[in-house]
DNA sequence: TCCAAGTCAATATG
DNA sequence: CATATTGACTTGGA
């Protein structure tokens, strides 16, 4: 139903051609790459292409990816989703047989595709596979067959095990865990999977707002205070950072470039914070990707404040799990730093009440590298807290760095390609919904921290890095 | 070593 | 059942 008028179709061509007809005879056996030369070592490793790969061309997917023109990841996932739902094909089947990925990964990929230019070679692979699949006239049919086969196998199995009530057939490979006895005990060999409580996540998010890249010391403290393993805290930060980054990417795609300097959305602006963060559900685009998550610390400043947010958890030695914890602390965000030594500049008392205007600049400064931590922390956190106001500096910084925005200046081969897709410019299609401006803002603020971090890191270096935020 | 990018796989949700 | 979320792990780069 949703429109999908785009005249896309052709863009696809190029890739198809690359696949279908290039490579003449040259057989392969160990490849003798027809291309240039580079990278003599590595590459092969082995098979690398367990999947069908439509018609099995002589080229490996990796090679295809390497020569693939820029693809419209968003458009591809959109079409794949359509085809799958229209034909009642599940992500699991599709993922396992076409992409070689698990259901969860497919779900993620389809829901939040990253723009092509942000993907690594590895990350592009699934998209090339999807494109290939879309180009295959029998794609659906093949998958349907697979589905049937699976069902048949399943039926067969069921049939055979009918007799005994306990189909317990460890079957499969490997040494079964034999004396498992009752499936109750033991299992602990597989780790229970940590599940962070909402309060713990909140606390981590607050910590993130203050310092996206906590020092080992800070991490240690967080772990202790939240009663979590250090590795869990580290992993959480890694995951959170990269997931926030991804959210920013999709914003980038959806809101299309459009980054007109100048006026921008002046209205609103100051207000916002105020009360409730009314997540404007007003009207929604079809595909609801509302996922603001990552930023909803929502933190409307106010009240609370001071007091390291975690103080509470401190004196509760008993096991963390299940315990509700107090949860009381209102977003006190404030440096949880003081707990440790700390000394030198104390974070400004600053509670964040109204009027607290950010400390604008701060970036560009930071010349000295040593001691970073503190300085950046306070600066960053301050701006984050005040959110709105900090924008000023944000924009200025962007200017300084001249962000490339959509960049993606193709370059794929010599422009001769002409027909090569043009996708990727559906920009204004959906205009901007300043609805989520608020959350967007927070995300950007978070991203700013990231930028600052990288700037600092590069500060001690010369070379003209390539910044793309 | 740290980090980012990709994934997996357990488990939430629908 | 299917799809979405998410802590942990794997790779590869510096």
From TrEMBL:
Residues 62-149 form the CUT domain. Residues 295-305 have a biased composition (Polar residues). Residues 189-248 bind DNA. It comes from the Eukaryota. Residues 187-247 form the Homeobox domain. Residues 28-38 have a biased composition (Basic and acidic residues). Residues 1-54, 156-192, 255-414 are annotated as: Disordered. Residues 1-11, 255-270, 350-360, 399-414 have a biased composition (Low complexity). It is found in: Nucleus. Belongs to the CUT homeobox family. This is Homeobox protein cut-like. It comes from Pelodiscus sinensis. The chain holds residues 972 to 1440 of 1440 of the full protein.
């Amino acid at each position: 139903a949703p429109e999908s008028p785009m005249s896309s179709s052709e863009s696809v061509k190029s890739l198809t051609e690359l696949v279908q007809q290039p490579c003449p005879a040259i057989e392969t056996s160990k490849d003798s790459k027809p291309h240039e030369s580079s990278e003599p070592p590595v590459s092969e490793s082995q098979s690398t292409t367990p999947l069908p790969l439509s018609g099995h061309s002589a080229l490996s997917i990796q090679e295809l990816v390497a020569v693939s023109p820029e693809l419209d990841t968003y458009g591809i996932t959109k079409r794949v989703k359509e085809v799958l739902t229209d034909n009642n094909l599940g992500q699991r089947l599709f993922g396992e047989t076409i992409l070689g990925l698990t259901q969860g990964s497919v779900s993620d990929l389809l829901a939040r595709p990253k723009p092509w230019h942000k993907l690594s070679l590895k990350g592009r692979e699934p998209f090339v596979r999807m494109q290939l699949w879309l180009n295959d006239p029998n794609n659906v049919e093949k998958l349907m067959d697979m589905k049937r086969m699976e069902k048949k196998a399943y039926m067969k199995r069921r049939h055979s095990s009918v007799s005994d009530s306990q189909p317990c057939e460890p079957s499969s490979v490997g040494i079964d865990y034999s004396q498992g006895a009752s499936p109750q005990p033991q299992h602990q060999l597989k780790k229970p999977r940590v599940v962070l409580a909402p309060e713990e996540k909140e606390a981590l998010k607050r910590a993130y707002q203050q310092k996206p890249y906590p020092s080992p010391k800070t991490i240690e403290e967080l772990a202790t205070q939240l009663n979590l393993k250090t590795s869990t805290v580290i992993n959480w930060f890694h995951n959170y950072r990269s997931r926030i980054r991804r959210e920013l990417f999709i914003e980038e795609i959806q809101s299309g470039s459009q980054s007109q300097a100048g006026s921008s959305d002046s209205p609103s602006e100051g207000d916002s914070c105020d009360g409730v963060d009314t997540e404007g559900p007003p009207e929604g685009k079809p595909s609801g990707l509302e996922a603001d998550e990552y930023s909803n610390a929502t933190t409307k400043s106010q009240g609370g404040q001071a007091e390291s947010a975690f103080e509470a958890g401190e004196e509760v030695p008993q096991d963390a799990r299940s315990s509700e914890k107090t949860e009381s602390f209102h977003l006190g965000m404030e440096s949880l730093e003081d707990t440790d030594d700390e000394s030198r500049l104390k974070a400004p008392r600053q509670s964040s009440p109204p009027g607290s205007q950010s400390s604008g600049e701060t970036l560009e400064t930071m010349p000295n590298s040593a001691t970073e931590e503190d300085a950046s922390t306070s600066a960053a956190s301050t701006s984050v807290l005040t959110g709105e106001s900090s924008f000023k500096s944000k924009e200025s910084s962007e200017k300084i760095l001249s962000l490339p925005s959509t960049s993606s200046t193709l370059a794929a081969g010599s422009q001769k390609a002409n027909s090569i897709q043009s996708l990727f410019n559906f920009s204004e299609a959906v205009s901007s919904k300043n609805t989520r401006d608020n959350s967007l803002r927070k995300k950007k603020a978070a991203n700013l921290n990231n930028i600052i971090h990288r700037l600092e890191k590069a500060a001690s270096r010369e070379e003209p890095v390539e910044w793309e935020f």
